[in-house]
Amino acid sequence: MGAQINPASISTAVRAISLHQLDQRWIEHLDMLTAAREGIHLRSLARNTPLSEYNRIAYQAFDGFTRDVVAAIAATLSHAARMGTLDPETLGLSRPSTTWTYMVAEDPFGSPEQRFGNLILNALRPTKPKGTRTP
Length: 135
Hints:
Elements: H1 7-39, H2 50-62, H3 65-83, H4 112-124
Helix pairs in contact: 1-2, 1-3
């Protein structure tokens, strides 16, 4: 007869596989959002609101997030059944060794109040006559 599998070990393995797949999909989602954020300020040149465009992109990307996580978990469990093991390390599901955190300015051009203040300051600065040089 085949060896009995402990239900607790099955539960632990399914939890580890689920967390790994959730982490992987979340990392991919954050990478996509970072790439979108990199050039989102250019949307203002097209007279689009960068924040609205960013939100639209983020909502569209997150729309199938849960479905993708569940599909990845199912595929990994299927692969585990074919290999005959539930060991996450044997399945190649190692966790990342480091985590990176980035501080990002939400609006690279500043808030509307900051832009208005800069406009006033630039208007009040004395202008140099043309043809004069500074040492």
